[in-house]
Amino acid sequence: MATTPDTRRFRLSDQYQALKSRLHQHMIRLLEDGDVRLEDWSRTKASDFIRNQVRAYVRDQRLPVNQSEADALAEDTLNELVGFGPIQALVDDDEVDDIVVNGPDHIFTERHGRLGMEPLRFNDDAHIIRVIQRILAPLGRRVDESTPMVDARLPDGSRVNAIIPPIALDGPCVSIRKFREQPLTAEDLIRYGTADAETLAFLEAEVGKRRNILVIGGTGSGKTTFLNVISQWIAADERIITIEDAAELRLRHEHVVRLETRPPNLEGERQVTARDLVRNALRMRPDRIIVGEVRGDEVLDMLQAMNTGHDGSMTTLHANGPGDAVHRLQLLAGFAGFNGDERTLLHQISSALDLIVHVSRLGSGERRLMSVQRVGEVAGDRLPMEALFTHPDAEREGGRS
Ligand SMILES: Nc1ncnc2c1ncn2[C@@H]1O[C@H](COP(=O)(O)OP(=O)(O)OP(=O)(O)O)[C@@H](O)[C@H]1O
Ligand SMILES: [Mg+2]
Q1: Where are the annotated coiled coils located (predicted)?
Q2: How do the domains of the chain map onto residue ranges?
Q3: Ligand 1 centroid – CA 97 distance (Å)
Q4: CB–CB of 292/243 below 8 Å?
Q5: Among candidates 252, 264, 257, 253, which has minimal Cα distance to 278?
Q6: In degrees, to the nearest 5, what angle opens at C-alpha 305 toward C-alphas 338 and 291?
Q7: Domain 83-179: which topology?
Q8: CATH fold of 186-396
Q9: Same CATH fold assignment for domains 83-179 and 186-396
Q10: pLDDT of 270-318, one tens digit each?
Q11: Which of 158, 220, 250, 373 is least crowded, fewest Cβ atoms below 10 Å from its Cβ?
Q12: Which residue of 112, 225, 358 sits with most ligand 1 atoms within 8 Å of its CB, as the best mutation to test the pocket?
């Protein structure tokens, strides 16, 4: 593909965007006139067809573009017609983990843990929305003014979130967390410097002892990945029920029941919440319950499950440190209508949780296991913790998550 610096610069220019729109219109007319449905063709056939048509158009219209620029136009036109527009190349790029679009001119990716801006752009807000609709259409979902936010999972397991104006003030935003063919393993965590072998061996033993574990960290800090790694240590014959908003965990166990929440439909009905699923899971004779992330009412049922014979359950929580995690659990439980005083709640939390594992994304993009805390007994209105492991970065990075 054409990626010389000149072509890259040309691709960002207004002139190129205008050419691209013109070509796009031209191709749409051509396809309609010829009754051609590119979706039904193989990618190679569609790509050859478009390349030829673009070359012919460039020649006939005497457009001032060279060969590699014409190739770029052909590629982009194909992606507009049958793919996800400017971000299709990023979706296809195995080195890209995350794709973030913040309005037409800001497209970022995370590659090898580092976030960087991509030399790509959309024409305008409407262009981004068209691509969002194309991503969502096969899932039977769409965004519009009445549903300005969507969270969805693509057939390949990638996670997509989109939010559009007027809710998003600076233009439509899309975040795609790509599904890794091969999920990270404990060995990967060691190789990437996330955790050391000794600490992981300790955690493996704790999982074997059926400890209730809470993995905490900021957005994208690697909580789900860590949860997936430690879940692999659950004995092969245990019956596990996983509850997630979008199924990300990949357990190799035989007795796994995977449950996924369901957002309400357009009429606001048929929602199935994490709380519904935790309650249902308790009736399914699980050995362990794994909740992908607690962020709502389900916190109460999860705490209760952990306190009543479902030892070895695990979940993640968005929090910046162990103290913050306890605070957030209290808040969530309060919102969920916990009826009892603060002491009782703290007791509930203390007896539910055995370990808190804190992961963090450093400024450099690397992920680190910051600390492993053993949750102690309530003393007064405090919940003491014993740090079993603390990474030196935990002090240096302070409150970072
Ligand atoms: N230890 C790690 N080393 C390198 N990359 C990692 C590591 N852990 C996770 N990642 C990558 O970071 C991204 C975010 O990981 P993950 O989904 O586990 O984070 P999260 O904290 O659960 O995010 P969210 O807040 O969105 O739920 C993924 O692309 C993942 O592949
Ligand atoms: Mg997660």
Answers
A1: none
A2: 1-82, 83-179, 186-396
A3: 9
A4: yes
A5: 257
A6: 95
A7: Beta-Lactamase (3.30.450)
A8: Rossmann fold (3.40.50)
A9: no
A10: 999 999 999 999 999 999 999 999 999 999 999 999 998 788 999 999 9
A11: 250
A12: 225
